[in-house]
Amino acid sequence: MDKVVATAADAVADVRDGATFAVGGFGLSGVPNVLIQALHERGVGGLGVVSNNCGAMDSGLAVLLSAGRIARVTASYIGANKEFARQYLAGELEVELIPQGTLAERLRAGGAGIPAFYTPAGVGTQVAEGGLPWRYDGEGGVALASPPKEVREFDGTSYVLERAIRTDFALVRAARGDRHGNLVFNKASRNFNPLAAMAGRITIAEVEELAEPGAIDPDHVHLPGIFVQRVVALSPEQAADKGIERRTVTVPAQAGEAR
Predict the structure, then answer these.
(1) DSSP string of 155-209, one letter each residue
(2) pLDDT, tens digit, for every residue of 102-139?
């Protein structure tokens, strides 16, 4: 089945207000920026987003966040996103913060058909006991707090029950993909992208290089096409457009100085 869609706009044309999304990427690495921009141009709002973070600087999900299109975020990291923090503390945004490994496994479990699982991460904290502020009232008080979760003991160790995550859509970015949706991720881009793709009921992948079926060695496939419903081939310019979050350089040694 040829899953290639002509444009990113076509790929998100059926998204409605209030839809939920699992979005790949970590910082600026592996972020499906072209699909996110297409979603922004579509004008939908009230979106629920599941992602490790909610964009950095002025890219990624920060585009939707700054436009007020996101209503709820499930993430593990706020980082240096000042607008994210502002909306959260002002009561404009509902935020569920959970341990990073738990988030990854909740996405994977959703794609694998596992409804819930037990993990020791969060036992003895508000993650398990409840009370984490999901939404503030804008005046420093908590308007909505997380509920307590089931805790069970196995072989003398306590574990908290975490539910799997399934979303209406998933947006991911791959270095290479074929027309059947088989995807290959490059280095750090193979972070939350495969897991987000598994969790979406309709998964849309933007690929830097589009290959014909059979051109990708099956042993090199990181995510099989069964998890992908739509593929968007990026232009060379779009594929090359990759930001750097923090530039770090070594100060050149002066003549005669030891390196």
Answers:
(1) TTEEEEEEE---EEEEEEEEEEEETT--EE--GGGTTTHHHHHHHEEEEEEEEEE
(2) 999 999 999 999 999 999 999 999 999 999 999 999 99
